[in-house]
Write a structure and sequence with these properties.
The chain is of the alpha/beta class. Helix content is about 45%, strand content about 10%. It folds into 2 domains: about 20-200, Rossmann fold, CATH 3.40.50; about 205-315, Rossmann fold, CATH 3.40.50.1980.
């Protein structure tokens, strides 16, 4: 064999020898679930995000690159059809394992062990998200937070996310046992960090339990319930739909009666409707980000995001 041919062959073989074993490929539907996944996958791989944080999960349309990413995934983590309505059909066409967090108690085990794409039973548990928006677009029952439907924003509750992380660790270990020790260590680190943060936030938020507030859209019920906060209502169920006149009138009446000390808007959507309702009223303004768009994936990102949410509540609800 000539020296030239040997160099050519070496050029083909060496990159193959140098390339690492294919790491775990995880796709998360929304940014907070990507942050959760990143804590488990630290040092292994970086989870892929499906819906950009500046897009609306309520009306997202899959791109060809999204479909390819789902096809290449080992695991897809999502809430379920009550949130990512666009995703159910696509998941039936992938061989990836599916970790669905909604539709049942997230702490339940066993259902994720089978690769089951049939999520039809979950539609009985929730009701159609879009129909719910139409029929309840102008609800006046402001104080009954989340009574209208299943609250799909599960990442707002640290206990639910700790249970989800444990399920994710178990599934990834089944898929790739060689990463088992690293996954176990990452989970243990995440669990300790999250539990410590949760305890600190309970102490931080406890003095604010009587401070009423409104949020822009119906996304924070799990956080509010977990920490015992006093949410009076929300402007809209779906941020893509403007609130009705009766809803806005009810909110302004409650603001005039000084039942609320703060009104929260969101960075993803224009806050002009909030400004108009609160005009000339003595009420503070805050901002809550339901999709963690300012956070990059990393081992501490989800815990830091939870802390930032609590910080926004503290800043706006703390009496002068």
């Amino acid at each position: 064999m000539s020296l030239r041919k040997l160099f050519i062959l070496s050029g083909l073989v060496l990159p193959l020898l140098a390339s690492p074993v294919q790491a775990l490929q995880v796709v998360a539907s929304v940014k907070p679930l990507q942050l959760l996944s990143a804590a488990l996958l630290d040092g292994i791989s970086e989870p892929r995000l499906l819906v950009p944080a500046d897009a609306s999960v309520h009306n997202y349309v899959l791109k060809p690159s999204d479909v390819r990413g789902l096809a290449a995934a080992d695991l897809v983590i999502w809430v379920g059809p009550e949130l990512e309505l666009f995703l159910g059909k696509a998941l039936k066409n992938t061989d990836a394992r599916i970790l669905q967090l909604g539709g049942a108690d997230v702490a339940a085990s066993g259902s994720e062990s089978d690769h089951d794409h049939d999520h039809d039973h979950d539609h009985d548990h929730d009701h159609d998200h879009d129909h719910d928006h139409d029929s309840h677009a102008d609800e006046s029952a402001q104080g009954e937070v989340h009574k209208h439907a299943v609250d799909a924003h599960l990442w707002m509750d640290p206990e639910l996310m700790l249970a989800a992380a444990q399920r994710m660790q178990q599934m990834l270990t089944q898929i790739a046992p060689e990463y088992g020790p690293r996954l176990a260590a990452n989970y243990a680190r995440f669990a300790a960090s999250l539990q410590a943060k949760d305890a600190a936030l309970r102490l931080q938020l406890a003095p604010l339990a009587d401070q009423g507030f409104f949020v822009f859209h119906d996304a924070y019920g799990h956080f509010v319930g977990h920490y015992g906060l006093k949410q009076l209502g929300y402007f809209t169920l779906d941020p893509a739909r403007p609130p009705g006149a009766r809803r806005l009138s009810d909110i302004r009446r409650q603001l005039k009666a000084r039942e609320a000390v703060c009104v929260f808007s969101e960075p993803q959507f224009r806050a002009n409707v909030v400004s108009s309702v609160t005009q000339d009223l003595d009420v503070r303004h805050g901002e809550l980000d339901p999709l963690a768009r300012g956070f990059e994936p990393g081992p501490d990102a989800y815990v830091d995001y939870l802390g930032s949410l609590a910080g926004a509540f503290v800043d706006c609800l703390t009496p002068d």
